[in-house]
Amino acid sequence: MSTEEQLSEIKGVESLKQFYETNKQNINIAAIAAILLLAGVWYYYKQYKPSLEIEASDSLFMAERYYGEDSLNLALNGDGINLGMIDIADEYGSTKVGERATYFAGRILLEQGKYNESLEYLEDASFDDEFLAAQIIALQGDCYSELGEYEKAGDYYMKAANKRSNELTTPRALAKAGEAYEEAGEFDDALDAYLELQEDFSTFTEETNIEAKIARVKAKQSAK
Predict the structure, then answer these.
(1) Is 92 helix (H, G, I), strand (E, B) or coil?
(2) What is the 3-state secondary structure (H, E, C) of 147-209?
(3) What is the per-residue pLDDT across 41-82, written as a single tens digit (0 to 9) for each?
(4) Euclidean distance between CA atoms 156 and 150, whole angstroms
(5) Taking residues 182-207, what's their average pLDDT?
(6) Contact 76, 109 (CB under 8 A)
(7) Is the CATH code 1.25.40 the one for domain 33-126?
């Protein structure tokens, strides 16, 4: 290293020292804040959130048991000792157990005919699993269908059908989409749903008489 380079390096170090001395208080505060932030993140994910998951799981056990026994009010609202799905969803919504409770709350409210309340929970429910995600979207479609918003219901059913293609949920969502669009008078969209169902899911279409539905929609299109 040349003498000129050494002098330049020394000047750089001196400049850094001078900068630190001038801004010492702000730098130290920023460093402490960063350490506290990292410590907080570590505590949340390694200590606090796991303990919440355990606590929420204990609460969910009885609620799911009541749901399995078809005791919907107890499952939804609790029994006075154990929390119901609504309270679990509200208190532990940030946990995976809380997300599951949110889904069940929406599903139970749908079964009870409380469609607007059901939508509030179903819209908050979120799963990484594409199968469950598609099911939640289809349930929202059920709510809109029951509310008489058939075109919107059809859109949700199609969204559910396209979320994850499989032999179980997709054909049922397509069939519901076709029926909802028919009710809405959107015959082009209804035909598209039925034709996709006929083309891609032949086993399911045998059970639903899809050819008759296609013929019916085409007749409605002609008469429109």
Answers:
(1) coil
(2) CCCHHHHHHHHHHHHHHCCCCCCHHHHHHHHHHHHHHHCCHHHHHHHHHHHHHHCHHHHHHHC
(3) 443 454 444 555 566 677 788 899 999 999 999 999 999 888
(4) 10
(5) 87
(6) yes
(7) yes
Provide, rounded to the nearest whole percent, the portion of the chain with pLDDT above 90.
46
pLDDT at residue 53, as a whole number: 58
The number of CA neighbours under 13 Å toward the Cβ of 107 is: 19
pLDDT score, position 72: 94
| CB-based contact 204:161 (threshold 8 Å) | no
Dump the DSSP string for 38-63.
HHHHHHIIIIIHHHHHHHHHHHHHHH
Q: 129-224: which CATH number, 3.40.50.300, 3.90.1750.20, 1.25.40.10, 3.40.50.280?
A: 1.25.40.10
